[in-house]
C-alpha cells in the first residue's frame, strides 16, 4: 500500500510539471482550440509520471537491516607460544688432590700471586664470570 501511494503522488507531481507547458504553448495560437491534444498530453504525462514514480518507489531501501549469513571461513589458529628450554651448566666441585694445603702460608703466597682479586680473609677470588671462587692451589 505504501508503494502505491508513493507512485500515485509522484505521478501527480510529474503530470503537474508537464501539463502547464502545454497550456503556454497553445496560448500563442488564435485559432480553434482542440482539447483532445491537451488531454492526450496530460495522459502521456500521467503515464510518464506513473512509470518514473513506480521505478523510484520499487528501488530497495538501504536503511533496512537484513542479516545475511556469511560463508563460514576457516581461520588457522594462532601458534601457541612455548618458550625454549634454557640449559645452564651445573657447577660441581672437582675434587683434586692438592699439593698445597689451604690456609697455609704457601697457599696464601700462591693464591695472592696467581689472582689479583684474591681475598685472604675468605680464601676466594673473583673470576671472569663475576662470581667468587675458592682458591685451590695445585
TrEMBL record:
Compartments, record wording: Membrane
Position of the signal peptide: 1-25
Keywords: Cell membrane, Lectin, Membrane, Signal, Transmembrane, Transmembrane helix
Recorded topology in the membrane: Single-pass membrane protein
Alphabetized InterPro entries for the sequence: BA14K (IPR012413)
Transmembrane segments: 39-57
Recorded family membership: Belongs to the BA14k family.
Protein name: Lectin-like protein BA14k
Source species: Sinorhizobium numidicum
Amino acid at each position: 500500500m505504501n508503494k502505491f501511494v508513493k507512485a500515485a503522488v509522484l505521478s501527480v507531481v510529474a503530470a503537474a510539471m508537464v501539463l502547464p507547458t502545454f497550456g503556454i504553448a497553445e496560448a500563442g495560437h488564435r485559432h480553434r482550440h482542440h482539447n483532445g491534444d491537451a488531454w492526450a498530453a496530460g495522459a502521456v504525462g500521467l503515464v510518464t509520471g506513473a512509470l518514473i514514480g513506480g521505478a523510484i518507489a520499487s528501488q530497495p531501501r538501504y536503511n533496512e537491516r537484513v542479516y545475511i549469513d556469511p560463508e563460514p571461513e576457516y581461520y588457522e589458529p594462532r601458534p601457541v607460544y612455548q618458550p625454549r628450554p634454557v640449559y645452564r651448566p651445573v657447577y660441581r666441585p672437582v675434587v683434586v688432590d692438592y699439593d698445597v694445603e689451604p690456609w697455609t702460608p704457601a697457599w696464601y703466597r700462591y693464591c695472592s700471586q696467581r689472582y689479583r682479586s684474591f681475598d685472604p680473609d675468605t680464601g676466594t677470588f673473583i673470576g671472569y664470570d663475576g662470581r667468587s671462587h675458592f682458591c685451590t692451589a695445585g
